[in-house]
Specification:
Layout (H helix, E strand, L loop, with lengths): L4 H39 L1 H9 L2 E7 L6 E2 L5 E13 L7 H8 L7 H13 L6 E7 L1 H9 L7 E10 L7 H4 L2 E3 L2 H6 L13 E3 L2 H5 L1 H5 L3 E7 L5 E8 L7 E3 L3 H11 L4 E7 L5 E7 L5 H4 L4 H8 L22 H11 L8 E3 L2 E4 L2 E4 L7 E3 L1 H6 L3 H11 L1 H10 L21 H6 L7 H8 L9 H13 L8 E4 L2 E2 L13 H16 L18 E7 L6 H6 L14 E8 L6 E7 L5 H18 L13 H10 L16
Parallel strand pairs: 2-10
Antiparallel strand pairs: 1-8, 2-3, 3-4, 3-5, 6-7, 8-9, 10-17, 11-12, 11-21, 13-16, 14-15, 17-18, 19-20, 20-21
Helix pairs in contact: 10-22, 13-15, 13-16, 15-18
Length: 648
């Protein structure tokens, strides 16, 4: 149907109005775009040119919070505290030395620290910020912020710093952290970029070093916008890192403190183990040191004092120290001979005070001899001649093999620095080490824990725990990581030792402490159900000549300290239901019965009572002395569990 002329005119007018409206909108929008472009390109040209030419987007790592370390009860051993520091990047600064000079008028700066910072800035990328002042106060941070225009490239920041609340008690166990050095970067195979961060801290010794990776955590990242002067203009984005894992140790902090206090004044070590789980309840080394001094760099004077101390406070004697075990080794020789069937528990050996072999005399400690001696008497009175005879019958190979069954000559898997392997010598070892052919005299010396035999206090504690429990228990220092329990290892019967022979040796160890003429008789426990079994040891550190024997062996008290014998004791309690084992070594302490045994007895009692033991646990004639000793011990107040243990 054809449209009328009127309809056509009306449609044309409608289309024209719509076209004009749409055209107007398009012109208006184009005008806005042109206006905005002019504003950006003309009015704000300088600002955008600066953003394009001079500002930079920088990606920075966010160091994670280091994992915490707790004792078995949840008491904090290693934590983090807030730390203010001043950092500086050299890009756009001009003369960094001049800026640091201006900064020194506001903040106390260590000249050696600032010199190191300037060197670090030259080595690093211009955008990398280097710490020029650490542990500054809030007031100093405020001064820097107020004077920011005069300090290009300088900015304050907040970080975390390691702190050890129980300081010296755990120095050899927990260890300490320190700044990553070039030596660290060269020796460790770790590509974590955190290690390249200026003054980033890693574990240097102890658990801090051995568990560095889980304790360190994972870094976060942030994007920041910096201007030409290197100053951060704004933060564009942030992704937080992952905090390090919390580690709970098996150590009892109160017992550890008691051990350190009881060893005070000596150059000594002690290890306390749970004979059922293998948990190390305390592992002390004396003297000790304050690890907090190492966190930010120890002074030359303090380090020199520690390094030159003849008692070697930096050395972990409990795990790294190696000593001839002396008579504490006699259980090993006895078990080797019993298992080989070359002697039984009742057969006697006559001790005349020495054994003669190829025109050479091997002496017993008792000059007049012990007479007819069986296994029990040999342990109770520590007869050397009895063991000289066993060595000739059993041979060093069997003795060394038995030592390894009991945990000697073995590097135990505990996260402590420089854990020693010790030495269970054999004929092939001596030949391979260039010391010549093995001779029978070497076996005689080895049978009483002298000669080439070496063991650490940790190994002696393991040996004692295995004899007491009859299991191949392994020492455990880490109880859990982020709440996940670490497994108990070795809680299975010992292979290669019959229960009957173990029972016989334990009976001899009981007689050492509780029997008439037992070498540790003065260190007995009289508390019902807590009787102790053990073995004394005295290891020589010098040769005694024929001439000296003829005129009388010089007493330890009359010798210089460094030439005196080491004093040792190993033991466990209760004797009829062993739960705790202990080893004690006192360097150049003299006799094991007079020096090491009383310390071990006190430590065992403290471990059982988890507090100062009652005087009634001691023989009546010693209670006055024990009361005085307890009053003089410098003990900490027991610590309450930390709130941070919630993650355990």
């Amino acid at each position: 149907m054809r449209r009328s002329p009127a309809d056509t005119d009306r449609s044309a007018r409608v289309i024209s109005r719509r076209g004009l409206f749409l055209g107007g909108l398009q012109l208006g929008f184009a005008g806005l775009l042109i206006g905005r472009m002019r504003f950006m390109q003309v009015d704000q040209a300088d600002e955008y040119r600066m953003l394009a030419d001079e500002n930079r987007i920088s990606i920075e790592l966010l160091p994670p919070a280091r994992g915490l370390i707790f004792d078995r009860k949840g008491v904090l051993l290693a934590g983090n505290e807030q730390n203010y520091r001043i950092v500086m990047a050299r890009e756009g600064v001009g003369d960094p030395a001049e800026v640091i000079n201006r900064l020194s008028r506001l903040v106390r700066l260590d000249p050696s620290e600032t010199a190191d910072a300037l060197k670090e800035m030259q080595r690093r990328s211009p955008f990398v910020r280097v710490s020029v002042a650490d542990r500054v106060s809030w007031e100093e941070v405020a001064k820097v912020a107020v004077n920011a225009p005069a300090l290009p490239g300088v900015s304050p920041e907040v970080g975390l710093s390691r702190i050890y609340p129980l300081d010296s008690d755990f120095a050899h166990i927990v260890g300490y952290v320190g700044r990553v050095s070039d030596y660290d970067l060269a020796r460790i195979d770790d590509q974590d970029p955190l290690l390249r961060q200026p003054r980033f801290q890693i574990g240097k010794t102890g658990v801090e070093a051995k568990m560095e990776r889980p304790l360190r955590g994972k870094a976060g990242v942030k994007q920041v916008e910096q201007n030409a002067a290197g100053r951060v203009m704004r933060e564009l984005s942030r992704k937080e890192g992952e905090a390090g894992a919390n580690v709970q140790l098996t150590i009892n902090h109160a017992l550890q403190n008691y051990v350190q206090a009881r060893l005070a004044g000596e150059s000594a070590a002690a290890v306390v183990m749970d004979t059922v789980t293998g948990d190390i309840l305390a592992i002390g080394s004396a003297p000790t040191f304050d690890p907090n001094k190492f966190v930010h760099g120890i002074s030359t004077a303090d380090y020199k004092a520690l390094n030159e101390d003849p008692y070697r406070p930096l050395y972990n004697k409990s795990a790294s120290g190696l000593y001839p075990p002396g008579s504490t080794f006699k259980m090993v020789t006895a078990l080797a001979a019993l298992e080989a069937g070359v002697i039984d528990t009742e057969e006697t050996v006559t001790c005349r005070g020495y054994t003669e072999l190829h025109n050479r005399k091997f002496h017993c400690w008792k000059r007049a001899g012990h007479g007819k001696t069986n296994l029990i008497k040999s342990l109770r009175e520590s007869c050397d001649v009895y063991y000289y005879e066993l060595a000739q019958r059993a041979g060093v190979e069997r003795i060394s093999a038995m030592g390894r069954i009991l945990g000697l000559g073995e590097k135990h898997d505990v996260p402590i620095s420089s854990v020693a392997t010790g030495l269970m010598p054999t004929k092939s070892w001596k030949l391979d080490s260039g010391k010549g052919e093995w001779v029978v005299g070497d076996s005689l010396n080895a049978s009483i824990g002298q000669g080439f035999v070496l063991a650490s206090p940790l190994q002696l504690a393991v040996m004692t725990a295995r004899i007491a429990s009859g299991t191949a228990i392994e020492p455990r220092l880490v109880r859990s990581i982020d709440g996940i329990e670490t497994p108990i290892k070795g809680n299975v019967p010992l292979q290669g030792i019959s229960p009957e022979n173990l029972t016989a040796v334990r009976r001899g160890m009981y007689e050492v402490v509780n029997g008439q003429r037992g070498t540790a008789g003065r260190s007995k426990i009289v508390a019902e159900g807590l009787r102790m079994a053990g073995k004394t040891g005295t290891s020589q550190v010098r040769n005694i000549t024929k001439a000296e024997r003829a005129r009388g062996v010089t007493r330890n008290a009359d010798l210089p300290w460094e030439r005196r014998d080491h004093a040792l004791f190993v033991g466990y309690a209760p004797h009829d239901n062993p739960r705790i084992a202990v080893s004690v070594v006192v360097e150049h302490g003299g006799g094991g019965s007079t020096v090491a045994a009383p310390i071990a007895r006190d430590i065992l009692l403290q471990a059982h009572y988890d507090d100062l033991p009652p005087l009634t646990a001691y023989p009546a004639n010693q209670r006055g002395t024990i009361r005085s000793q307890q009053n003089n011990l410098e003990l900490r107040e027991p610590q309450a569990p930390s709130e941070g243990r919630a993650r355990l």
